[in-house]
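Thread: MU-OXO-diiron complex, take 2
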Amino acid sequence: MHCIKKITEDLSWVGANDRRLAMFEGVYSVPDGVSYNSYLLNDVKTVLFDTVDKAVKQRFLENLEEALQGRDLDYLIVQHMEPDHSASLMDLVTLYPNMKIVCNEQTLKFIKQFNHFEADSRVIVVNEYDTLETGKHKLHFLMAPMVHWPEVMVTYDSTDKILFSADAFGSFGALNGAIFADEVDFFKDYIDEARRYYANIVGKYGPQVQSLLTKASEFKIEMICPLHGFVWRKNIHKFIAKYALWSSYTPEEEGVMIVYASVYGNTENAAEILACRLRDAGIKTVMFDVSVTPASNIISAAFRYSHFVFASITYNAGIFVTMEALINDLVAHNIQNRTIAIIENGSWAPESGFLIRKKFEQCKNIKIIDNLITIKSGLDRNQLLDIDVVAKEIAMTMSPLQEDDKTMFKLSYGLFVVSVKDGKKDNGCIINTVMQITEKNNRISFSINKETLTHDLVLKTKELNISILSESVPFNIFEEFGFKSGREVEKFATFEDKRTANGIRYLPVHINGVISAKVTEAFDYETHTLFVADVTEAQTLSDEASVTYQYYFDNIKPKPVKLTDNQKGFVCKICGYVYEGDNLPEDFICPLCKHGIDAFEEL
Ligand code: FEO
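Output below.
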C-alpha cells in the first residue's frame, strides 16, 4: 500500500525507507536505517525529482502512482545517478513512455553506462542556471559537481523557494513517520547520524560543498529537500551552519578524540591514562578502540573534535592493520586543521609513531605534537611524566582562557543592535546587556561602552531602539555594527530604511523584535554607562529564536585560522582576526574590531 507524505500543496514525498540494509554502499552500517527520498511536483506538468534504491522500488512505484492520481508523468529530473537514487529509472521509462528525462551531459553519460535503452530521444539536457517552467513553478538548475559524484546537480524552485539538494543536507536514518526535521529533536537525536553521513559520504569534497553553499546563498531558501533524511523548513540556517563548519574542516568543538589499537591492553592503558590527565585538565575526551568501533563513527567524530591522539602498536613492522586503515580513510577524507599527538608501542622495534606522522604529513594544516610517547611492551612508571607532558602540550594548544574568563562566559546573554538618531545622523552598535527590570511599568536596562558614538548619542538624545538579533544573523552584521565606528561609516547605509514611531531606525533583517525606549536614568561605571529606560513601543517581528552569546561563539563567529608549523601569529579574541608574524607590535590595533594587543592571544 502507498505511503506518501504531503510537503506543500503541490509537492509530495514518494520515497521509501529501508531498515533492513546492513551496510550502506557496502561500507557504512546504518543501524537506524536509511530513507531514499523522491519528490513529485504536481503542477500543470508533473515532475519527479530522482527515484530510489532497488530495495524499496516496489513501495516507491506504488507511492508514485498514488501521488500522480491518474496523471501521466511528464518529467523525471535526475540530479544524481548513484544507483541508490536512480535504480528505478528503467522502470519509469517502461511505465511512463512519454516521460522526458531532465539531466546534464555528464548524467546522460552515466544513464547510458548504467542502463540499456535509447536515451537520447527522451532526454532534455540542461546546463548551469537553465530553467524549466512547469506551469506555476519555475525550476532553476545549479551544477554541484563532486557533491558526491561529478554529475550532481541541484534544483531550485523559485516559486516555493525550495532547494532540491541531492546528497547535500542528507542524513542517515529512516524517517519513522516524520518528514520534517522540525517534527523531531534533530540537534539532539539526529545530528550524530547527519554528521556521520556528511563526513563519510561528502566529507572529502569540502571545497565543492563550499562552492555549492556560496551558489545557493544567491537564492532565498525556505525549504530544503535532500535525497536522504528530513526535509528542512525551519531553522535551516542552523543546519547550514553545521555544513559551513564541516566543509571548511573547522572543528565543531574543542576536545580530544583518542583512538587506540591495542592487542593485549598495554597501548590502551597508556591511552586511558592520557585521557584521565586530559580530563583532569578539564578537556573533553572521547575514546575509540579502532578494532571495535566502525571507522565511519570515528571519521564522524574526527569532523567534530579539534584534537586527535593515535595510540598504536607496531605490527609487521608497520601500523596495526585497523589503525592504518582508519588513518588512510581520514587522509582520504581530506581531514585538516587539527592537532595530533601520537603514542607508539613496539616490544622490539617501535615504528608505528613515525609511520603515523608520515601519513598525516600529506594533510593540510595538521600540527603534530613533537613529543612522541614510545612504549616498549608496557608503559614504564617513569613514563607517567611523559604522559603528563603530552597532556599539557595538548592543553596549551587549546583556548587559553583564564578561569575567571571562563566563569564569566557562563553568564547567558542575548545580542542586540541599539540604534539612535541625532538630527539626520542614524547610528547603532552591538550590545549584549539588555534586560527587563520591571514589567508593570515596562522598563529595561542596558549598558554601552563609552568609546562608542552610539553611547554619546543615547546620552544626548535619550531615545533609542533595541533590535533583538535572531539566530540567522550572519557575521557581517557584527562586522558592521560591532567592529566599525559610526564616526567613520554610516552604519545603516546598506539596509532598508525602517523606523519605529519614534523616528529611529531599526535593523530590518535578522531580528525577531524591536523595542523603543526613553532613557530615564544613566549611571557611570568607568568604561561603560548603565542606562535605565521606559519602553514606549515593542513589536514582535518573527518567531525565530534570539541569538545568544554562546550561539554566536559556537555558530557565527569564524574560527581562527590555524597556521602551519613554520608560521607564527596572534588571533584577536574579540573578532577572530589573525595577525601573522613573530611579534605583535605594542601599538597594534585590530583592523576589524579596533581592540588593542590585550585582546590578542598567540596561536
Ligand atoms: Fe545517496 Fe551519492 O547517493
